[in-house]
Amino acid sequence: MLARTLIENCGSAFSRVIVTLDFLWFCQKCDRTPLSLVRYYDSISPAGQVRLLKTLARNPLLDIPCFFGLDEGATRVVEESLQENLYSKDQVVFLQDEPCPGLFVIKSGRVKLYRSSPDGDEHIVRLLGSGSCFECAPLFDGGPNPVSAQAMEDSVLYFLPSRAFRAILASSPEVTSRFVSVLASRLRVLLRQVEDMSLRPVNARLARLLLDMSERKADGADGSSEAKLNQQHLACMIGCTRQMVNASLGKLARNGFIRKEGRRVVVIRPEELRRIADHSD
User: How large is the angle between the packed helices 231-238 and 242-254, nearest 10 degrees?
Assistant: First the structure.
């Protein structure tokens, strides 16, 4: 079996445990069962098996789904160029309108992408967690950063310089296709945000945001989930004041649709949030 092959190729007992855990983690990451991954391993050439074993050996590439399956040359470019940097809470990663230095991938922690007005008003475009990449659009059009990025907690980020990223795109049409899909998906999200800002009242925008967050991370026990953001974050995401968010949260809580626990919001009745989010009057 592939797992046994991995274990046999490790030195210490500690490494064997780590590799076994990484094998199971990797199966989840690439949406394969252990059996299907073993069958895939058995079906490819010996050279392909070697490349796969190297990839499974807890290479940082595992944290960049768009780069899985690179050929040997492209893999070498990433391994030689990839940097790992620690950012403390509230530390700025890069600023809006500055030249784009390259691609960032979150190994651990959380990062917010936001735009700022000349008056200092902030709109949060996206919140990102482990495994997410940003900000790849300028790497395709050569423009400046469309947003600023800031660590929301102590975070570890992988960084791939723009020159290395473009070299990989030039040699791997498959990777280019994957990133085009990522950009297309994000465009759809932004179009929905524009629709919400233009056509929906604050309570509907807030309900949709809480619903989206609850669907991304349910706690599993009773279908409810928690949104671990303060009211200012929520206001910056839906384009209103903190006072308006506070009033809308209070109404949702009084109706029994959510529960407020200090700075946390627990979604209790997602079907009611969905009804409010779909109501644009």
Answer: 110
Residues 6+ apart with CB under 8 A from 47: none
For the chain, what is the domain count? 3
**Residue 43, domain member (yes or no):** yes
- Residue 136 belongs to a domain with what CATH number? 2.60.120.10
Residues 6+ apart with CB under 8 A from 122: 114, 115, 116, 236
Among all chains, which residue has been given the structure tokens 């839906």?
A: 238
Residues 136 and 207 in one domain: no
Single-letter code of the amino acid located at 220: G
CA dihedral 184, 186, 191, 197 (to 10 degrees): 180
pTM: 0.64
| Segments forming the whole domain that contains residue 210 | 200-277
Question: Angle CA(130)–CA(193)–CA(266) in degrees, nearest 5?
Answer: 60
Compute the distance between CA of residue 204 and CA of residue 28 in angstroms, rounded to an integer. 34
**pLDDT, tens only, 90-139:** 999 999 999 999 999 888 899 999 998 888 788 888 888 888 889 888 98
| Residue-by-residue DSSP string for 60-114 | GGGG-GGGTT--HHHHHHHHHH-EEEEE-TT-EEE-TTSBP-EEEEEEES-EEEE
pLDDT in tens, 221-275: 333 334 457 788 888 888 888 888 888 998 999 999 988 877 778 888 888 998 9
